[in-house]
Fold:
Amino acid sequence: MTKITLQGRLDGKQRTKVKALFDMLYTPKELAAEVGFHIDQIYQVYVPLGCPSERDEKNHILINGKAFADWYGVFYAKVPLAQDETFCKTCKQGVKIYQAQEKRSGDLVYLLSVCPVCGRRLTKIIASKGHGAR
Structure:
């Protein structure tokens, strides 16, 4: 089971904006405004995690948009889960489905289970209208 980093993860709209960044140098303020997150996320999360950046003659951080998008795609890649696994945000890893109960809400079919490591309640969507079986 692979542990992943949750800190600094972006939502769907932000990931789309990251993919649209240009091959040019952005200041942290410009990058944060372009993608839609707080500037502190660059200094406190991305730079310490190894985000590709450079310094200008005044020691200011500059980040190439295309290089950042490539780095983000690799560093925050989706972790594939097996059919009998779900993701626990407490343990930060995929865990086996344990004590599963199938539930239905309209067109949504999902499993409620318990993390075998920490006991957190987990949900895994099985099927929904428009998405088919997963």
Notes: The chain has a mean pLDDT of 90. Strands lie at 25-26, 54-55, 61-64, 85-88, 93-96, 101-105, 108-114, 121-128, 132-133. The longest strand covers residues 121-128. The chain has two domains: 12-75, 85-133.
